[in-house]
Amino acid sequence: MEKVSSNRIIIIDALRGFSLAGVALVHMTEQYIASAPTDNLMEVTNGLVDQILSGMIGFFIIGKFFALFSILFGLSFFIQMESASKKGQNFAGRFLWRICLLFIIGYIHQLFYKGDILTIYALLAPFLIPFYRMPNKWVLFVAGICLISIPRFISYAILGTESAFGFPSFMDFNNELNTSYITTLKEGSITAVFSTNAGQGMLQKMDFQIGFFARFYLTFGYFLIGLWLGKIGLFQKVKENLPKVKKWLKRIIIFFILALLVTGGLFAISPQPINFENWLHVIAINAYDWSNIGLTAIILCSFILIYMKSWGEKFLSFFAPYGRMALTNYVLQSIIGTSILFGWGLGYLGKVQTLYLVLMAIILIALQAWLSRIWLNHFRYGPLEWLWRSATLGKMQPFKK
Fold it and tell me: What is the pTM of this model?
């Protein structure tokens, strides 16, 4: 298999870049608010084309590319631990320090964008360490518990749709706290946005993670799937594993179709209008999450199968430099996106149709991918990747090639 160096496998970088592109597209079309939009905020996106694009992004991208990104985090954890183990080293302590640094980077990113995922990764990552030496069947068992959302049902039984931190219900989009937050994004100074995201924004994000939406538990499930893929050597021996990937794809397509049918059936027999105070609606939305998991797996398997074709490798390798600098590009795209949309920047929040938001995202992705390729022709790492690596190892790492 083609490698960048003895330590880098291009297909993993390409998949990470591909995942990040999907994340960028979602964040841009959601206008970086990471909150429920107020009734009048999205009026400009109510046209037919905008609705069609929003529907396609919602079905094919939202939740799926974030999941791929999370799976790759778990895979990266395995690669780091395995590399150290082969050298007779224990990377666990160093990994914990690395994660502390990631939390700091993520918290700075949080000031710009409330939906930052790096802080969540940092909070969850330490729990991966015991699973490194666990048998595969136990890794998959715990991943299954997370992905079928057993923790969500427990959380819902305790909290219902209420906030764990005393915020208004997420079902009330037009509550005073949310409208005030949107006003801050539209009209506030950069210090006002930072101040709100630093405290209230972080707590609201945790509400989203551990409450009804259960993203915290799903993310850890995806981490474990990535760890398991590393343990079985999927990407280390892709050609040998292609028959297995094809078999998985056939089974997953069946699972995906069944999950959609169950979702549709449950919503059809549920009381109307939809009200998440009703257990039947909660089970239905859970079934929809299962369809998201199925579609994520379909995208993953399809990516591998396409990449292993010569034309597919040539096309998808475009994302590899973008993926090698994923940390830098992830933070930078939020800074660029918020500076275009928020009031402290150009102030276009709520004023741009979805069609143009999609075009802006595509231009941003293409530009970052192109600049990443140029940068990596001269430097070993992206700027944040180099800083993170140097701080992790406690000494300045070689930067220029």
Answer: 0.95
